[in-house]
Amino acid sequence: MNERFQSDMVKDAVTQILTGIGEDPTRDGLLMTPDRVSRSFSELTSGYGMDPAKILKTSFESDGYDEMVVLREIDFFSLCEHHMLPFYGTATIVYIPSGKVVGISKLARLVECFARRLQIQERMTKQIADAVQEYLVPRGYGVAIKARHLCMAARGVGKQRSEMVTHAVGGLIKEDPKARQEFTQLAAI
User: Fold this and answer.
1) Section 81-109 average pLDDT
2) Which of 91, 96, 138, 182 has a CA between 20 and 30 Å from the CA of residue 56?
3) Residue from 7, 25, 26 nearest 16 by CA
4) The domain containing residue 40 runs over which residues?
5) Domain contains 109
6) Catalytic residue among 121, 127, 167, 182
7) Same structural domain for residues 143 and 69?
8) 149 catalytic per annotation
């Protein structure tokens, strides 16, 4: 939960937007809209209240496992910081352990931590990769994100089927061409 979230301010802003677009916020169908939007934004921005260090703090000995760990197709929804419209897709996290591994649900929570903020896809990719590198200290790591952006599909150029792909790599995955090729194949980018 985002402790800085101010529900009453969001409700007031939604009421002003409704009035600003020529709607009547007191009409039957819109009476509860400010409250609904506020609750929605509270959920969609809950990542501000999440700490990647806490998410990844519980790790386990890898028991000698030193090959790539891959969690693919982690669904996410985020809000574009430019238009506050959703972008959504999947993230893939890959890392080569250096003695410790983390539960896979923690990797999915890490994606949520950064997706549930006003974002741009490029920054989100780097934030996830940086957190994996900092808190897991792997021998190599990579993050790939594929997403569709409603700010591009529902307005502006109106390209509904376009998909943006971003990735960030480090350690062995960046330095070793064979490891990078394996990451690319496993992440399907």
Assistant:
1) 96
2) 182
3) 25
4) 7-44
5) yes
6) 121
7) yes
8) yes
